[in-house]
Amino acid sequence: MNNPRFWTLVAMILAAAATRLIPHPPNLTAVGAVALFGGAYFSRRWLAVLIPLAAMLLSDLALPYTLYAGSGLSITPMTYICFLLTVGLGMLLRERVSFGSVTIGAVAASVMFFLLSNGWVWFGGSMYPHNAAGLIECYLAGLPFAQNMLVGNLFYCGVLFGGMEACQRTWPALQQRKLATAPVVQ
Asked: Sign of dihedral through CA atoms 139, 140, 145, 149?
Protein backbone atom coordinates (compact mmCIF):
# COMPACT_ATOMS: atom_id res chain seq x y z
CA MET A 1 0.00 0.00 0.00
CA ASN A 2 1.65 3.13 -1.21
CA ASN A 3 -0.99 5.42 0.23
CA PRO A 4 0.19 8.32 2.42
CA ARG A 5 -3.25 8.66 4.04
CA PHE A 6 -3.26 5.00 5.12
CA TRP A 7 0.23 5.18 6.64
CA THR A 8 -0.52 8.48 8.38
CA LEU A 9 -3.63 6.95 9.97
CA VAL A 10 -1.69 3.83 11.02
CA ALA A 11 1.13 5.92 12.52
CA MET A 12 -1.32 8.12 14.45
CA ILE A 13 -3.15 5.08 15.83
CA LEU A 14 0.04 3.29 16.86
CA ALA A 15 1.40 6.42 18.53
CA ALA A 16 -1.85 6.93 20.41
CA ALA A 17 -2.03 3.26 21.45
CA ALA A 18 1.51 3.57 22.81
CA THR A 19 0.16 5.97 25.44
CA ARG A 20 -0.99 2.86 27.28
CA LEU A 21 2.65 1.90 27.82
CA ILE A 22 3.64 5.03 29.73
CA PRO A 23 2.55 5.77 33.32
CA HIS A 24 -0.96 7.24 33.42
CA PRO A 25 -3.96 7.45 35.74
CA PRO A 26 -6.24 4.40 35.36
CA ASN A 27 -8.24 4.51 32.11
CA LEU A 28 -6.78 7.86 31.02
CA THR A 29 -5.42 6.63 27.70
CA ALA A 30 -6.14 7.01 24.01
CA VAL A 31 -7.84 3.61 23.59
CA GLY A 32 -11.38 4.91 23.10
CA ALA A 33 -10.19 7.72 20.85
CA VAL A 34 -8.20 5.26 18.73
CA ALA A 35 -11.31 3.14 18.14
CA LEU A 36 -13.49 6.15 17.31
CA PHE A 37 -10.80 7.63 15.05
CA GLY A 38 -10.16 4.38 13.18
CA GLY A 39 -13.88 3.90 12.59
CA ALA A 40 -14.26 7.44 11.29
CA TYR A 41 -11.24 7.65 9.00
CA PHE A 42 -10.55 4.25 7.44
CA SER A 43 -12.74 3.99 4.35
CA ARG A 44 -12.62 0.19 4.32
CA ARG A 45 -14.57 -1.28 7.22
CA TRP A 46 -12.21 -4.20 7.72
CA LEU A 47 -9.29 -1.77 8.13
CA ALA A 48 -11.37 0.41 10.46
CA VAL A 49 -11.69 -2.64 12.71
CA LEU A 50 -8.34 -4.36 12.10
CA ILE A 51 -5.87 -1.49 12.56
CA PRO A 52 -7.22 -0.13 15.89
CA LEU A 53 -7.84 -3.68 17.13
CA ALA A 54 -4.27 -4.71 16.28
CA ALA A 55 -2.94 -1.61 18.07
CA MET A 56 -5.02 -2.49 21.15
CA LEU A 57 -3.89 -6.11 21.09
CA LEU A 58 -0.22 -5.18 20.64
CA SER A 59 -0.36 -2.76 23.55
CA ASP A 60 -2.19 -5.40 25.65
CA LEU A 61 0.58 -7.88 24.88
CA ALA A 62 3.28 -5.32 25.79
CA LEU A 63 1.71 -4.14 29.07
CA PRO A 64 2.87 -7.09 31.22
CA TYR A 65 6.45 -6.35 30.15
CA THR A 66 6.34 -2.57 30.55
CA LEU A 67 3.98 -0.60 32.75
CA TYR A 68 2.54 -3.61 34.57
CA ALA A 69 5.69 -5.76 34.68
CA GLY A 70 5.09 -8.99 36.53
CA SER A 71 1.31 -8.64 36.75
CA GLY A 72 0.48 -11.02 33.91
CA LEU A 73 -1.69 -10.58 30.85
CA SER A 74 -5.27 -9.51 31.48
CA ILE A 75 -7.50 -9.30 28.42
CA THR A 76 -11.24 -9.30 29.00
CA PRO A 77 -13.77 -10.01 26.27
CA MET A 78 -15.99 -7.08 27.33
CA THR A 79 -13.14 -4.60 26.82
CA TYR A 80 -12.78 -5.79 23.23
CA ILE A 81 -16.55 -5.82 22.67
CA CYS A 82 -16.73 -2.19 23.84
CA PHE A 83 -13.73 -1.37 21.67
CA LEU A 84 -15.45 -2.84 18.58
CA LEU A 85 -18.69 -1.01 19.40
CA THR A 86 -16.68 2.22 19.62
CA VAL A 87 -15.22 1.53 16.16
CA GLY A 88 -18.85 1.23 15.03
CA LEU A 89 -19.63 4.61 16.60
CA GLY A 90 -16.68 6.02 14.66
CA MET A 91 -18.10 4.62 11.43
CA LEU A 92 -21.25 6.64 12.11
CA LEU A 93 -19.08 9.77 12.12
CA ARG A 94 -17.83 9.21 8.57
CA GLU A 95 -18.58 12.10 6.24
CA ARG A 96 -19.62 14.27 9.19
CA VAL A 97 -16.55 14.70 11.36
CA SER A 98 -16.98 17.92 13.30
CA PHE A 99 -16.17 19.20 16.77
CA GLY A 100 -19.71 18.46 17.90
CA SER A 101 -20.02 14.99 16.40
CA VAL A 102 -16.63 13.89 17.72
CA THR A 103 -17.43 15.24 21.19
CA ILE A 104 -20.75 13.38 21.21
CA GLY A 105 -18.99 10.23 19.99
CA ALA A 106 -16.31 10.49 22.70
CA VAL A 107 -18.93 10.96 25.43
CA ALA A 108 -21.11 8.14 24.05
CA ALA A 109 -18.13 5.77 23.89
CA SER A 110 -17.20 6.60 27.49
CA VAL A 111 -20.75 6.08 28.79
CA MET A 112 -21.12 2.85 26.82
CA PHE A 113 -17.84 1.48 28.16
CA PHE A 114 -18.76 2.44 31.72
CA LEU A 115 -22.19 0.81 31.57
CA LEU A 116 -21.12 -2.38 29.78
CA SER A 117 -17.80 -3.02 31.53
CA ASN A 118 -19.14 -2.39 35.03
CA GLY A 119 -22.26 -4.39 34.27
CA TRP A 120 -19.97 -7.20 33.13
CA VAL A 121 -17.95 -7.01 36.38
CA TRP A 122 -21.14 -7.12 38.44
CA PHE A 123 -22.84 -9.87 36.43
CA GLY A 124 -19.84 -12.14 35.88
CA GLY A 125 -17.91 -11.63 39.09
CA SER A 126 -18.23 -12.31 42.77
CA MET A 127 -16.97 -8.94 44.01
CA TYR A 128 -20.48 -7.47 44.32
CA PRO A 129 -23.77 -9.06 45.44
CA HIS A 130 -26.06 -9.92 42.54
CA ASN A 131 -28.85 -7.57 43.51
CA ALA A 132 -29.76 -3.92 42.88
CA ALA A 133 -27.57 -2.70 45.75
CA GLY A 134 -24.59 -4.64 44.39
CA LEU A 135 -25.11 -3.24 40.90
CA ILE A 136 -25.28 0.31 42.25
CA GLU A 137 -22.16 -0.29 44.35
CA CYS A 138 -20.34 -1.62 41.30
CA TYR A 139 -21.27 1.41 39.20
CA LEU A 140 -20.30 3.81 41.99
CA ALA A 141 -16.91 2.11 42.32
CA GLY A 142 -16.39 2.55 38.58
CA LEU A 143 -17.09 6.30 38.49
CA PRO A 144 -13.45 7.44 38.97
CA PHE A 145 -12.40 5.19 36.08
CA ALA A 146 -15.28 6.47 33.95
CA GLN A 147 -14.25 10.05 34.64
CA ASN A 148 -10.68 9.31 33.54
CA MET A 149 -11.90 7.54 30.41
CA LEU A 150 -14.09 10.51 29.50
CA VAL A 151 -11.17 12.93 29.96
CA GLY A 152 -8.89 10.62 27.95
CA ASN A 153 -11.42 10.18 25.15
CA LEU A 154 -12.08 13.91 24.87
CA PHE A 155 -8.39 14.85 24.99
CA TYR A 156 -7.11 12.18 22.62
CA CYS A 157 -10.04 12.63 20.21
CA GLY A 158 -9.01 16.27 20.06
CA VAL A 159 -5.43 15.26 19.34
CA LEU A 160 -6.25 12.57 16.77
CA PHE A 161 -9.19 14.15 14.95
CA GLY A 162 -7.77 17.67 15.21
CA GLY A 163 -4.35 16.43 14.13
CA MET A 164 -5.73 14.61 11.11
CA GLU A 165 -7.85 17.57 10.04
CA ALA A 166 -4.79 19.85 10.33
CA CYS A 167 -2.65 17.38 8.37
CA GLN A 168 -5.28 17.12 5.61
CA ARG A 169 -5.36 20.89 5.24
CA THR A 170 -1.57 21.07 5.11
CA TRP A 171 -1.06 18.05 2.84
CA PRO A 172 -4.01 17.59 0.44
CA ALA A 173 -2.70 14.10 -0.48
CA LEU A 174 -4.01 12.95 2.92
CA GLN A 175 -7.60 13.87 2.11
CA GLN A 176 -10.07 11.07 1.53
CA ARG A 177 -10.61 10.53 -2.16
CA LYS A 178 -14.24 10.88 -3.12
CA LEU A 179 -15.53 8.62 -5.84
CA ALA A 180 -16.98 10.48 -8.79
CA THR A 181 -20.61 9.74 -9.36
CA ALA A 182 -22.14 9.61 -12.79
CA PRO A 183 -25.30 11.60 -13.41
CA VAL A 184 -28.47 9.57 -13.17
CA VAL A 185 -30.04 8.98 -16.56
CA GLN A 186 -33.78 8.55 -16.49
From this structure: positive
